[in-house]
Design a protein that fits this description.
Order of helices and strands: HHHEEEEHHEHHH
Distance between the termini: 44 Å
Number of helices: 8
Structural class: alpha+beta
Shape: globular
Strand order of the largest sheet: 1-2-3
Helix content: 25-40%
Largest sheet: 3 strands, antiparallel
Radius of gyration: 18 Å
Length: about 230
């Protein structure tokens, strides 16, 4: 089990939409010492820090239709992620729809979950929630970049539906997976997405990120995913 340092949530919850949008002072040096090159900790320390912008104008539709086929492989993004992250996958005759499979383990709870289409207990979660992204830079993006973000495999993980819904649009400062063994991987994924799409973080968010990653300073920063601009529909 990866070590985890307790988060100071009280300070995190104090940040609101009324914060200043200008750059804020950097976070203190990591308790783990200098971050290793290429590590998620190093990337987290370099993220831009600003206050959260208002959620005004946010709608799911601003990120395009749900699970669009942005990679043009003929299948929707949700089925692509299910096929990639479930075991024992069974597909429909169309070659796309995932009918059943097993999530073992579910990253958020560490449990084994059976997936069956139409009675699913598995969600596809955006590591960085769409509304969180909206408040930290995405409202200024092109439609194509928002579609790319919503369908980028780097930002998507199959997870227990009830746990995912408790997360809501929380960032690292306000929510972490109950499965402590997955927290370093989870936070590294959020850092990778925010770096790739040039999203900012709040001061409390970056402090929470670096506190988690200080317990796993060699955690690599994930890379890959789709281009940051989706092709025209």
């Amino acid at each position: 089990m990866l070590p985890f340092l307790t988060l100071a949530l009280t300070g995190a919850l104090a940040l609101t939409g009324c914060d200043e949008l200008g750059d804020l002072p950097g976070s203190p040096p990591s308790p783990a010492g200098p971050a290793a090159a290429g590590s998620a900790l190093q990337a987290a320390e370099a993220l831009t820090v600003k206050g959260r912008a208002p959620k005004t104008g946010y709608e799911r539709s601003a990120f395009g239709s749900a699970w669009a086929d942005t990679d043009k492989n003929g299948c929707g993004t949700r089925d692509d992620i299910l096929a990639a992250q479930l075991d024992a996958v069974s597909r429909d005759a169309d070659g796309c729809k995932v009918l059943k499979g097993v999530l073992d383990p579910d990253p958020y709870t560490g449990t084994r979950i059976q997936f069956r289409r139409g009675a699913s207990k598995v969600d596809i979660d955006h590591l960085v929630a769409l509304s969180d992204a909206w408040q930290k830079g995405a409202q200024k993006w092109s439609d194509g970049k928002r579609r790319a973000f919503a369908n980028d495999p780097l930002n998507l993980v199959a997870a227990d539906s009830s746990t995912n819904r408790r997360k809501g649009d929380g960032d690292t400062a306000t929510w972490l997976p109950p499965n402590k063994a997955y927290r370093c991987t989870y936070v590294a994924g959020q850092v990778a997405v925010k770096k790739k799409y040039e999203l900012w973080v709040t001061r409390a968010e970056r402090e929470a990120m670096t506190e988690v990653l200080a317990g796993c300073p060699d955690q690599k920063l994930p890379t890959g995913g789709n281009p940051t601009e989706a092709p025209a529909r």
